[in-house]
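retry 2 of 3: previous attempt timed out while embedding zinc ion. Reduced batch size to 1 and resubmitted. Inputs unchanged:
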Amino acid sequence: MKSQTPKTFSFAEAFCSIFGHQLKVSKNVTEHIHEYQCAKCGMEMTDTANGILAQLTPKFKETNKYLANFYKRRRRSRQRHFANAS
Ligand SMILES: [Zn+2]
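retry 2 succeeded.
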């Protein structure tokens, strides 16, 4: 097979660069920290401890995994639902 599949994401990337990424929460790490994925181009972002949105690097993934474990243990079995007003 010689032919390569055309890069179908180029439109989405161009769209994002103009209109911004359409980020959706892909994972709740803690109450305040979430991981996001762009519904258009698939780019992953995360909240950081500083409250800044940053690109989800392997290092951040590792940190989030640690935080999620820590958070789960602290939260015990009690579950609360928060309306996300933003
Ligand atoms: Zn995007």
